[in-house]
Each structure stands twice: as C-alpha cells, then as structure tokens.
Design goal:
DNA-binding; glycosidase; mainly alpha; Endonuclease Iii, domain 2; Endonuclease III, domain 1
Length: 291
DNA sequence: GAACCGTGGAT
DNA sequence: TATCCAAGGTT
C-alpha cells in the first residue's frame, strides 16, 4: 500500500522527461555519484557538467584523488564556487581509502560521517548510488512539496522537521522505487516546478496541487533577503584564491595584496583562507595552495 | 538558528 | 543594473 498519491504520475513524467545527465548513467560508480552531489551543492547543473567530466577523467576512483595533494583538488575545482567543497572531496577520498578500503560506503551513517556530506548528500548517495530508501529533501523537493502539499509558493528558509516528516511519509515502500521517486521529484522541481515562472501547464500533478487550487497565491512574509556579494569577504577570498589557482607555484604576498585595496579586509580574508586550509603560508613568506 | 561560505546565468 | 537563486553544509 502506497500512501503517495503522486508517485505514479511523477514517475511516469520522469521516464519521459528526465535529462540524460552523466552521473545518472547506469555505468556511473558511487564515487561518480558522490562527486556529482558535492559539486551540485548550490551550483547549477550546467556549470557542473564539464567540471564533473574533467574531474572523473582525472580521478576515476577515490584512491586516485587521495594520492594527490589537496591543493590539486582546489586547483581543479577552478571557479565552481565554495572551494572548501574541493577540500571536502579530497578529505572524503582519503577517508574512503583509510576507513572503507577505497570504496564509497553504502551505509547512510558512514556517508554522513564524511566531510561535507550532510543530510541531503548522504541520502542522495545512498539512494541514487545504492538504491536505498531515504527521503530526499533538497531545494527542488522542498519547493514541490510546499506547493503541492502545503499550498504556498515557497518553503521556509531552512528545512523544518515538518518538511522532513512529509517527505518521509511520501516515500514509496519499495527501496528501488523510493530512490527513483527521489530523483523524479527533484527533476520535476528543476524543470517544471521552478522557483520563478513555474510551467504548471506541463505538470503531471497539477490536478492535486494545493497551490494551484488556491489560485497560486504569491509568497507572503518577509522578503527572502538576497546575499549581496560585491565588497564582501567572500569576494576578496575569491580573488585571493584565484591568484593561487592560476599560478603554477607559490606566490609572493605582493601578488595577493594587489587584488584588494583595503588592507584590513584583505588580511582578514587571507587569514580565513589559511584557517580553512585552502591556503598554505610558507616559511619564506610566500603563499601556496595546500600540499 | 542565523550567518557565513563563491560564482555566474537568467530575468 | 540589480536581484534572484542554483541537487547544502558547517559553525
């Protein structure tokens, strides 16, 4: 008995409309799935595609990456954003080699223990790579459920227990079907039930959508503040790291000083990069990507 | 729980 | 041009 009234329609829609993404192919390894999920954190599919291909070509297994210095991962990450994810993936590779014999673990708890792997990513890898039954609650699923089930345009700013309970209540009983349902709802949110200008005419569950039935009311409540970027420490960190990425070796501090005029903010950003392990201060005063 | 952590395309 | 926001996680 399945308590999910949408699964059949969504699964059928997915069969007909799913994108042919490389990390979804049958021959993709769990490592390939893990790499894709980390790269996709807060990053659009279109920008991940070439990065994933290059990464997997260079480091087809965790052992391949574990054998390299962390700085190589940061350099390879290029401009994908949130470069600590590169560090996390490198640390994942070493943990997988040391604790799991070089194979990506299939248990949800072991996945969750990996650096940079949280509630979403652990569920996604366990589901998509190993066919297990876990609730997937990413930004796409949250938006779909907010509309179809709750009747509001957008979910809360941060995931709630209520959302998690709802997602779990909708899980099909059969693990393989549940895993399929997870990607299918995500894909529906990514292609049809989008944040702006949703394509309701193409939606397979429009007849049961609480938000549509309510007349598609606009989001009420405080505006979800956008993060200004210009002038922030993040921008400074990005510029500093770009210098190190684009250099072939260590760089003098003067090269870093050149990217930002304001010295207090510049030093703070550099110190933070060092504290995060993204930059190594060398004994001679130069700076380098981590060894 | 809020703040922080990059980057670039779309509108 | 400015804002939104994209398969989150950590502190």
């Amino acid at each position: 008995m399945n308590e999910n009234p949408y699964s059949a329609a969504v699964l059928a829609w997915y069969e007909a409309n799913a994108r042919d993404l490389p990390w979804r192919r049958a021959d993709t390894t769990p490592w390939g799935v893990l790499v894709s999920e980390v790269m996709l954190q807060q990053t659009p599919v279109a920008r991940v595609l070439p990065a994933w291909e290059a990464w997997m070509r260079r480091w087809p297994t965790p052992a391949d990456l574990a054998a390299e210095p962390a700085g190589e991962a940061v350099r390879m990450w290029n401009r994908l954003g949130y470069p600590r994810r590169a560090l996390n993936l490198h640390a994942c590779a070493r943990a997988i080699v040391e604790r799991h014999g070089g194979r990506v673990p299939d248990s949800h708890a072991d996945l969750l223990a990996l650096p940079g792997v949280g509630a979403y990513t652990s569920a996604a890898v366990a589901g998509f790579a190993f066919g297990q039954r876990h609730a997937i609650l990413d930004t796409n699923v949250r938006r779909v459920l907010a509309r179809v089930e709750t009747g509001v345009e957008y979910p809360p700013k941060t995931p709630t227990r209520s959302e998690a309970r709802l997602a779990e209540s909708l899980l099909p009983p059969e693990p393989a079907v549940a895993a399929r349902w997870g990607v299918a709802v995500m894909e529906l949110g990514a292609l049809v039930c989008t944040a702006r200008s949703p394509k309701c005419a193409e939606c397979p569950v429009i007849d049961g959508c609480a938000w549509v039935l309510a007349g598609r009311p606009a989001h009420d409540g405080p505006p979800r503040r956008g993060q200004t970027y210009a002038g922030t420490d993040r921008q400074v960190r990005g510029r500093l790291l770009a210098v190190l990425r684009d250099a072939t070796g260590p760089v003098p501090k003067s090269a870093l000083d050149a990217v930002w005029d304001e010295p207090v903010q510049r030093e703070r950003a550099l110190d933070a990069l060092v504290a995060d392990g993204l930059v190594d201060p060398l004994e001679d005063g130069d700076y380098a990507l981590p060894a």
